């Protein structure tokens, strides 16, 4: 195995395990016939090119990368409602298999771009042949509407590299606010949606 592959392997293991754990948590809610605060979960290990780019941009030396680059392992949890995000945050705090190191609430304090999400940095142990190894991972928790906005903005960023023309920057802020309004409107019919989900889940059975 090449050096980078060896370095990234524990991160890959952490991402795989965390995806399974959060997906199981979702299924546990559904098994009880309850609304799951987790809609779906994705995860990725940062690419080598992206790690190198961030090392240059943030002036991170190779010997401190494990501590100073907190998003080499990344998990993203999507929720239906804003309330669900804070429920997931509480559930993560209660877990004994991960320790919360840092939290950033970009929902109450949206980024200047309009970006909203709740970020948690955790320490998580993976078990390797020579013993346990603590891995730092970033968990981003957001609604489906926040995810839609962030995905589109991320794509647009490939073209503009963060230097948006003024009109696009303005539109992005407007669309971010519209996405948040949508979340607020959805929250107001939350009980109706959850009731419909219970009926749907009962008739559909378990997810695989
Ligand atoms: P990718 O491809 O998702 O991995 P930094 O990582 O240096 O930018 P910091 O302070 O270390 O910033 O972390 P922060 O701001 O808490 O989280 C950075 C990550 O949040 C980004 O990772 C994105 O995933 C997401 N994010 C933050 N701001 C924005 C934004 O304005 N738009 C979108 N679409 N996503 C954002 P990466 O590494 O940039 O990208």
Automatic annotation (TrEMBL):
**What InterPro entries does its record include?**
GTP_Pyrophosphokinase, NT_sf, RelA_SpoT
Subunit-structure text: Homotetramer.
Keyword annotations of the record: ATP-binding, Kinase, Nucleotide-binding, Transferase
Please report the stretch or stretches of sequence annotated as the RelA/SpoT domain: 43-164
What protein name does the entry list? GTP pyrophosphokinase
Write down a Pfam family by its short name: RelA_SpoT
- State the family it belongs to: Belongs to the RelA/SpoT family.
Q: Which GO terms describe its molecular function?
A: ATP binding; kinase activity
Q: Which organism is it from?
A: Lactobacillus taiwanensis
């Amino acid at each position: 195995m090449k050096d980078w592959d060896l370095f990234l392997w524990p991160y890959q293991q952490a991402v795989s395990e965390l995806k399974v754990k959060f997906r199981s948590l979702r299924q546990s809610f559904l098994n009880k016939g309850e609304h799951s605060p987790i809609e779906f979960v994705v995860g990725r290990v940062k690419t080598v090119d992206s790690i190198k780019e961030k090392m240059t941009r943030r002036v991170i030396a190779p010997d401190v990368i494990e501590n100073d680059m907190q998003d080499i392992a990344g998990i993203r949890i999507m929720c239906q409602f804003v309330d669900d995000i804070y429920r997931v945050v509480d559930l993560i705090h209660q877990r004994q298999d991960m320790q919360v190191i840092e939290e950033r609430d970009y929902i109450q304090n949206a980024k200047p771009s309009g970006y909203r999400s709740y970020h948690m940095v955790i320490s998580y142990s993976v078990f390797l042949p020579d013993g346990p190894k603590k891995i730092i991972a970033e968990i981003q928790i957001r609604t489906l509407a926040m995810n839609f906005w962030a995905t589109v903005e991320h794509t647009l960023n490939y073209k503009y590299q963060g230097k948006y023309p003024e009109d696009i920057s303005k539109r992005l802020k407007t669309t971010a606010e519209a996405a948040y309004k949508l979340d607020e409107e959805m929250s107001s019919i939350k009980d109706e949606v959850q009731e419909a989900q219970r009926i749907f889940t009962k008739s559909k059975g378990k997810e695989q």
